[in-house]
Prior knowledge:
This protein is mostly beta strands. The strands form five sheets. The protein has a five-stranded antiparallel β-sheet with strand order 3-4-5-9-8, with no helix packed on it. The relative contact order is 0.16. The N terminus is likely disordered.
Amino acid sequence: MLAARPRLRSRAFSCPGSHARSGAGSRSRLRARSRSARPLAAATVVAALAAVTACGADTTGAVDSGRVPRTSGSAVASHPADHAREPEHAMPDTHGEGTGVGEGSGVGDGSGDGLAVAAGGVRLVPETTQFAANWPVELRFQIRGVGGQAITRFVQEQDAAMHLYLIRSDLVGFQHVHPTMAADGTWTATLAAPASGLYRAYAAFTTAVDGRANRFVLSVALVVPGAAVPTPVPAPATTTVVDGYTLSLAAPQGPPRAGTTSPLTVTVSRDGQPVTDLQPYLASYAHLSAFHQNDLAFAHLHPLGPAAIGRSATGRGGPTLTFDALLPRPGAWRIYLQFRAAGQLHTAALTLTAR
């Protein structure tokens, strides 16, 4: 007989003995912790994962799924007070066709790292940041603007109004899902059951600020208590195999240089033959999500060319896809490349080093 699922307790990101108390004071402390939260450096990942065992198991809710409903609401405007509360590294983002940007945390040049919880007067507010291990998770959150009001109007891009990415601090457990939004602006992301460990969730979306549609990537730390077992990050490689498909990575101009765009190519083959019938997934022949080994900085790339992304991506892509990689940090990056072939979605993983 299956054990009863633990009940959800919405509370601050903390371990037993340091739980947030109710009232205005605890809410202020929660906001302060959210603003200062940062992923752990690679040197502390093993110790941090082991420390998770000191936290008591917490909860999650029931599983649900569905399409993003169309909603209405007023556009959010930027406010100086909100800018004052933003982390120093909350950098802008321009996630557009063929840019291959290193997704930032606000609006502008795409030079950010996706690690901020707020930018441009917009804030990511999760209902809770602690979940039980080995149970499917419903991560609920709002995107709030001026005065703490939930934003309910978003621009659909890449066939979804909200993209949510999840990664554990040792760069495993990758998920890319598309939450659904309720009328009050609460998003629900259904996630596969996570193993114990420290995680980061990234929300990528477009909404209006000062009357202009702007793209954001905001993120928050999550914890899944229990006996976490860290996984070593694989060494850099140029090939990987997933579901019978071989993916070959090449950097025509040498290893990518952090902070500048560098070309990357991915060639897909099967049984030694080039694959030329890649199918669009979320309006693109591929999606490449990258996470930095030391601090979980984030980048998301799409293939270059009008036939590789958007409405022109209607079938028969491959075998070679070209990306303009803009990675905000030097060092090791774990990349997850998602592509659709033969009617199935496949996810390949490689480690890449940026100079």
